Amino acid sequence: MSKQLKIGIIGIGRIGKLHGNNLSFSVPNAKIEAVADLSLNDEMRAWAQGVGILKIYDNPAQVFADPAIEAVFICSSSESHADLIIQAARAKKHIFCEKPIHTDAGRIREALAVVKEAGVKLQVGFVRRFDHNHKKVRDVVASGRMGKPHIVKVTSRDPEQQSMEYIGTSGGIFLDMTVHDFDMVRYLSGSEVTEVTAIGTIKIDARIREFSDVDTAIVLLKFENGAIGVIDNSRAARYGYDQRVEVHCDKGCVQDYNDLIDTAMISTKDGIYSERPRWFFLERYNQAFIAEAQAFTDAILNDTEPSVTGIDGLMPVLIAKAAQKSLNEGRMVKLSELI
Amino acid sequence: MSKQLKIGIIGIGRIGKLHGNNLSFSVPNAKIEAVADLSLNDEMRAWAQGVGILKIYDNPAQVFADPAIEAVFICSSSESHADLIIQAARAKKHIFCEKPIHTDAGRIREALAVVKEAGVKLQVGFVRRFDHNHKKVRDVVASGRMGKPHIVKVTSRDPEQQSMEYIGTSGGIFLDMTVHDFDMVRYLSGSEVTEVTAIGTIKIDARIREFSDVDTAIVLLKFENGAIGVIDNSRAARYGYDQRVEVHCDKGCVQDYNDLIDTAMISTKDGIYSERPRWFFLERYNQAFIAEAQAFTDAILNDTEPSVTGIDGLMPVLIAKAAQKSLNEGRMVKLSELI
Amino acid sequence: MSKQLKIGIIGIGRIGKLHGNNLSFSVPNAKIEAVADLSLNDEMRAWAQGVGILKIYDNPAQVFADPAIEAVFICSSSESHADLIIQAARAKKHIFCEKPIHTDAGRIREALAVVKEAGVKLQVGFVRRFDHNHKKVRDVVASGRMGKPHIVKVTSRDPEQQSMEYIGTSGGIFLDMTVHDFDMVRYLSGSEVTEVTAIGTIKIDARIREFSDVDTAIVLLKFENGAIGVIDNSRAARYGYDQRVEVHCDKGCVQDYNDLIDTAMISTKDGIYSERPRWFFLERYNQAFIAEAQAFTDAILNDTEPSVTGIDGLMPVLIAKAAQKSLNEGRMVKLSELI
Amino acid sequence: MSKQLKIGIIGIGRIGKLHGNNLSFSVPNAKIEAVADLSLNDEMRAWAQGVGILKIYDNPAQVFADPAIEAVFICSSSESHADLIIQAARAKKHIFCEKPIHTDAGRIREALAVVKEAGVKLQVGFVRRFDHNHKKVRDVVASGRMGKPHIVKVTSRDPEQQSMEYIGTSGGIFLDMTVHDFDMVRYLSGSEVTEVTAIGTIKIDARIREFSDVDTAIVLLKFENGAIGVIDNSRAARYGYDQRVEVHCDKGCVQDYNDLIDTAMISTKDGIYSERPRWFFLERYNQAFIAEAQAFTDAILNDTEPSVTGIDGLMPVLIAKAAQKSLNEGRMVKLSELI
C-alpha cells in the first residue's frame, strides 16, 4: 500500500468509535492520527489506546492545529456539526461529517460555502448508499438498462422505539428518521424532489403527542424527472430493521429485500419458519459503514469527488422540513416554498 | 349434493363466460338455468350449448321472468349494471354483480335502496378478496393476533397497457384500476377511508394526456381507525401482474408476494433466474373467481350475508372520485366532501 | 372445437373420478362416452350422472365392445392393469393406464408387446412429468443450454404415512413411492439408469418391519450418459408433500422448490412465518393431472407419440426391483442383472 | 478487556494471514505475540509489521521456545501438521490446527496421544461449523425440538476447479473436498458414520483421470443412530460456492440455503433475476473464520473443551478413506474395516 490518509476523529461516542474501529481494522489506506473529544473520559482513552491511537486530545482545536492530520471525521453531537465543518475547512482538512450537517438550512449553506472557499472535500454520512443491496438497486437503475424510473418506494422501519428523551430532541420523525429515506430516494431516482405530502399517525406510544410528533408516517414525493415516490416509516416494526427499496421503471422493477439473520428454514406441520431481518442499523449496515469510510479515504487519496456531497447533506433537510410543513398544514408542499 | 342454486347469467362476453364455466364445472351446488345477452350471437350460443345450458335468451327480461331462476350474475357492460340490479331485485332474484355497480354514486345508492326494499341479496364482484394470498393476509390481520393495523400498502400494476379506446372510456385510472385497490384497503384494514391524496404521472403513453388521465399513480389514505395507507399503480409493469399487499401492525408485518409462473430456479455464473409473476388477472385470480362464485352460491343457499355487500360496491367508487378530485385540485380531499 | 376424443373410463374409484372430472370439465377436446366398474355402486352411478355420462357399465368388457369408444383410461386396481391393457389393445382402443402397469416385468413386457402388435397408443400415468415446476426444470435441461447433466437429485417425501394395510400390499417403498422418482430421474436426465444402490431405515413406524420394508430411504443412481443421481424418500414429512428436483449441469444448476399453500409472510419478533407446501399429490399435482389428460387426448387426436410411453412404464419397475435387491443384499446392483 | 490469549502463528501463507488478520482485528481477547514461517520473506514480514506483530521468526521452534506464547495456530502445509502438533503439545502450547491433521490415520492418532498426554487443548479447523446458517440448522436439530434425525443431506460444490497441480497432490476429492462435508454430517447428525458408499464421475476435466480421481461424486452414509445421509460434490458449480445442508427429522425438516451476494431482484418480461451465491469459502465463510478463532480463544481462556476436538479431526479422514475404498472397489464399505 503506497500511502495512508492521516485522519483525526472528532467525537468518540458510539458512532466515533464505530468509525474508529473500521478505519483502524478494515480500511487499509487510512490511519487514525488522533482523536479528540470535549468530554474525554477514561473509557474513551482506553478504547483509543487499545486501537493504537497515540494522540488523544480533549479539544477538536488540537486536531485542526495538527499539521500531520489531512482529514477529519466529525462524529460529535449533531448541533456542533456545522461549526466544526467550518473550523475544519478553514484548517484545510478534508471532512467526513455524520448526518445531519444541521437542522437549519441557512447554517448548512453557510458551512458549505466555507468548504467551497477552502477547497477541501466534504462527504456526508448517509451510510445507506453504501449498503450492498440498495447500491445494487441504484446501480441497475442508474445504468439505464431498465429505462427511466416511474415509481420510487422506500420502506423504512426501526425495530424498537427510541427513548422519549431521544425523540423529544430529535427534531421530529422527518428530520430524525425519514431524512435517511429522503437521501435514499434522491440516490435511487437520480433526481431532485419538487413536492411532498406527508400524513402521519400515532400508533406506538401516545406520549409522542407532547412533541407534536408522529411515530408512523407516509410521505408522497414528486421528482423533477416526472417520477413519483413514496416512503413509509414506523418507529417500531418489532421484527427487526425493515429496510427495503423498490424502483419501478420503463422495463420493469428493481427492488431489494431485507438481509435476514440466517438462511435456515424450519418446516413443520405449522408452516415454514425463518429468521427475521437483522436487528438495527449496526447489524444491517455494518459493512456499509466500512464501505463508506473506504470511499471517503479513496476519494481524498485519489483526489476525486466524494460520492455523498454537501448538497446531498442539504437537500434531505429541506425535504424533511417540507414534509413537516405538509403534516402540520394538511396540504401538499412545494420544495420551492422553502428555498 | 342436496340442492343447487338455479342461476341466470346476463351478459356472456368474456367475464360472463368465465363465470359460466366456473359455475358449470367448479361450483357443485350451482346450476346455470339460463343465459341472456342483448347481442346474442352464434359463438355465444355455441359456448352455452357446449356447457350444457338449455335456455339461451336474447333479453335479460326473459331471465327475470323465468320463475325457475333464483339468482342472476350480471356480467353485461358496466353502464347497465345499476339498471339490471334494479330489475333483478324487483323480480326477487338474488344478485351477483360485476364491479362497478355504476360510476355515479347516486345511481349506486338508488340501486342499493331497491335491493334493500326487495329483500334480496347482493354480492359485488371484487374478486381479489377471494385470492388465497390476499385473503390470508386479511384473515391474519382480522384475527387480531398482530394487534391493530398501522400501515396498509397495496402494490397493483397491470402487465401491459390496455388500448387507448378502452382507457378513453374507462372513467380514469382511479375508477378503472385503483377501484379494486380501494376495495382491498377497506378489506385489509377493516376500516373506512376518510381522506385521500393522489399524485400521478404519465410515463407509459403520452396519448393518455388527451383524456386528462395518468398511467402511473400513488394514492395516500387515512382510515377511520387511525391507520394510514398507500396504493401505487402502473398501467404497464412489463413483468406481469404485480399484486402485493402489506399490513404493518402493532406486533409486526403481514404481507404477500406474487404467485410466480413456476418455482424453477436456474443458477449460472450470471446469477439466478426465476420465472416472473403470472401474467394478468385471468391467470392470477383464476382460483379466486371460482371461490367468489362458490361464496355467493353458498351465501344464497345458506341464507347468510354475502361477503362483499352493496356498501362494498359503493365506497370504492366514492374513494376513486375523491382521488380524482385530489389529483385535479392538487390537495388532500376528505371523503365527507363527497357524501 | 373440431373433434372430441370419445373415452371410456375403467375403474371409478378416487383416481378414476379425478380423471373423469378433469376430462369432463378441463379437457375441452375429450368426451367421456362411458364408465365401467366391476364394483359399480350407487355413489359411482350418482357421480357419473352428475358429470353427465350416459353409459354406465358394470364390466370393462362393455367398454371394449362399444364401437363409439376410441380410447380408455385404466384406473382400476393395479394388479388388473396389464390384463386390461391387453384387452383394450386387442379391442383397438388407445390406452391411458395409471401406474404401475404391473409389478412383474415379464407381465409388463407381455402387455407392451400386445400394444405394439395392435398398433394402438399407450400413455402411462406418471403425472409428475406434467407438473409445471418439474417440467420447467426438465425443459431447461433438455434444451441443452446448461450443457450436459452431472448430478440429478430428487427429494420426494409424503406428508403422512399411509395405513399399514396399504403399505403391506404396496410392494415396498421402491415399487410404491420411489417408482415415481425413478421415472422422474429418467425424465430429468434424458438417460437410462444402469446401476443403483439403496439404503433404508425405519424411523416412522416400527410395524413396517413386519413387511421387510423401510419408511426412509436414499437411492444412488448411475446413468448411461455418465451422470450420477440420488433420490431421498420419507413416508412422513409432516410439513406437506416435499417434491423438489435438481439437475446440476456443465454451466450451473436447475432446480425447483415446493408450491406453498399461499405466499403470505408474517414477520414478528419471533421470526418470519410462511405457509407449508401443498399437502399431498391431489393438491400439488392437480393441474398436472389435467395437463396429463390433455396431453393424452392431444396425442391421440393428432396421431403423435404419447409423452410417457410403455418403456417409461417398464423401466421404473425394473429400477425399483434393483433398488430392493440392493437394499436386501447390501450391495450395488446393475440393472443388467435384472434384464 | 480482562485478559488476552497470547498466540503464535506458524505458517503465514494465505490461511495464516487470514487468521492473523481476524485475531488482530476481530477477536478482542486474542493477541498475536509472534509469527513464524520456514520460508519467511519480505512480503510476510511487511504484513506482520503492518498488523503490529513484533516477533517475526523464521522457525516454528522459536515459537515453541517462547514462554510468552500460550497457544499456537498451525497454518503451515498439511503434511507438517501432525509433527507440529506434537512439538507444540510437548512445549505445552494449546493448539489450533488447520485441517487435515494428516492424511494417515496412524499419524493422527499418534499426534492426538501426545496432545492428551501433554494436557493441552486442541481445536481442528473445520470452519463450516461456525457458519451462521449451518450452525442454526445444527442447533435446531441438537435442541431435540424436531425429534430424531432421519435423513442428513449436504450439497457442497466449489465454484471453479482448482489447478491440476493442486488436484494431483490433494489426496483425491474425498480427502480434499468431502472431508469438510464428512465433518458436517457428523456435526449435524450428532452421530458417527458406520458405513459409506461412494460413486463418482468425471464431468469437468478429463485430465483428472490421470490421478484416478473424480470431479463429481455422491456419497451415501449410514449413522450409528439409524439415520441415513447423502453428500453430493462438484469441483465446478460455475455459479458460486453451493453450500446447503438439510436434516429431515421426526417432526419436519431443517435446512439452509446459500447466502447471496445481495438481495436485489430485477423483474422484467424475461423473468426475475437475482444475484448468485457468494463466490468461494473466503466470501461465504469469512464471518465463520472469525467465530472459529473467537471460539478457540474463549475455550482456552475459560478452560473449556474446544468445540472441534481431535476426534473430530480423525473421523472425517477415516470416512474419506472409506469413501475412496468404496469408489475403488464398487461396494459399500464399513468404517469398522478401517479401524
TrEMBL record, chains A, B, C, D:
Domain of life: Bacteria
Pfam assignment, any one: GFO_IDH_MocA
Domain GFO/IDH/MocA-like oxidoreductase: 135-254
GO molecular function: nucleotide binding; oxidoreductase activity
Keywords, ordered alphabetically: Oxidoreductase
Matches recorded under PANTHER family: BINDING ROSSMANN FOLD OXIDOREDUCTASE, PUTATIVE (AFU_ORTHOLOGUE AFUA_2G10240)-RELATED, NAD(P)-BINDING ROSSMANN-FOLD SUPERFAMILY PROTEIN-RELATED
NCBIfam families, sorted: myo_inos_iolG (TIGR04380)
Family: Belongs to the Gfo/Idh/MocA family.
Protein name (record): Inositol 2-dehydrogenase
Organism: Lucifera butyrica
Organism classification: Bacteria, Bacillati, Bacillota, Negativicutes, Veillonellales
